[in-house]
Every structure is written in C-alpha cells, then in structure tokens.
C-alpha cells in the first residue's frame, strides 16, 4: 500500500498500539506483517496464550488486543473477559479459523468488538482494527447472517428482544403523548381511565430515565413511533 492509498484520516491519527496473541508463532508473524505495514497500526506486544496476553496487557500500553480464540492455558474468549474487566477502554478483536456461530456469540458476550476469520485476515484485519478503534463492530458477512437468523429465531419463539423495554400498551400511550394528546384524550382513545394513563406516563418516565413530556416526545421520535 502506498502513501496515497491510505485514507487521509489515518495518516494524521496517532498510531494504534496492538497486542497480538496467537499460540502459533508463524501465524503471529504473518498477522504482524499485515498490521505493521500500515502507518497507523503497530504491534507493540505479542503473546502465545491467553494468560500471557493478560500479562502483556498489564505491562504494555495497548489500545487494541487481537486474540486467537483457540489458545492453551486461557482461550482468547477467557482472556477477552479478563481484559474487558482489567482495561475497560481496551478494544478487542477475535481472530479465528472457525466460522462458528457459537464462538461468534461467545466472543460478542466476552466484549469483543469484531470477529475476523484467519482465512481472510489479509483482506479484513486492517479494516477491523480501524473499525474497533471507532467503536464500530466488524463482522464478516456470514456472521451478520448468523446474528440476523438468531434474532429472527428469538422473535419466532416469542422471546422479547433485549431492547424492547416497553409493553405494547406503554408504546401506545407514549405515541399518543408524543402526538400531543392530553391524558383525558388518551384515556378516551384507549378506553382506559385517566388514572391508568397517568400511571403509564409515570412508568414510562421511570423506565426510560426521562423527566418530562418533551423528553418522552424525543424518545418516541428516536424509536420511530412518531415522525419528527
């Protein structure tokens, strides 16, 4: 890659300091070559297993950990959980040869911001590192498919999505509040008492951590319940 090929914003940014952990020295060398040829990326520490990765994170100033999943002593998944607790600001990418949904979900739960297959590391890893530092998730196309399939399966089995904070009735009340209806009007529209409407409004404010009607309206716009 020539200087001209590098996006302008990567030429001026501080170097991303990377901890690389993989139990195969040959793989580490190959991955390091991919990363170190980029002007904004630098491998500053290497580890041969998860336990050593944690030790390196303690002794080195690193921004990003690139961890192989399958390693002796501590796996990359176990190390990711430890590192997330040890250094909350540290970004983590999982590097693996396994196109495995179970590993993918475990990696995301462990705090990883991306999941890169070794087979396409030369194509995806650099972009994944930069995405991680922007707090953007990086997943290969098959992983995105797996996530969507998992979500749809949960919906079909009647499991509420974690982000579904409100009951259908609370959503109805919120929408009408945001549209400017009074408690009396909402009561008449939903065939409930004014007292029940007021209780729903109090629950909405408490559940969403909001203070007043204006904030409820802004939330309803963000949630797609009303148009701005």
TrEMBL record:
InterPro entries: CheY-like_superfamily (IPR011006), NreC/VraR/RcsB-like_REC (IPR058245), Sig_transdc_resp-reg_C-effctor (IPR016032), Sig_transdc_resp-reg_receiver (IPR001789), Tscrpt_reg_LuxR_C (IPR000792), WalR-like (IPR039420). Residues 17-133 form the Response regulatory domain. The keyword DNA-binding applies. SMART domains: HTH_LUXR, REC. Gene3D superfamilies: 3.40.50.2300. It comes from Streptomyces marokkonensis. SUPFAM superfamilies: C-terminal effector domain of the bipartite response regulators, CheY-like. It holds the Pfam family Response_reg. The modification 4-aspartylphosphate is found at residue 68. It comes from the Bacteria. The keyword Transcription regulation applies. This is Response regulator. Residues 159-224 form the HTH luxR-type domain. Keywords: DNA-binding, Phosphoprotein, Transcription, Transcription regulation.
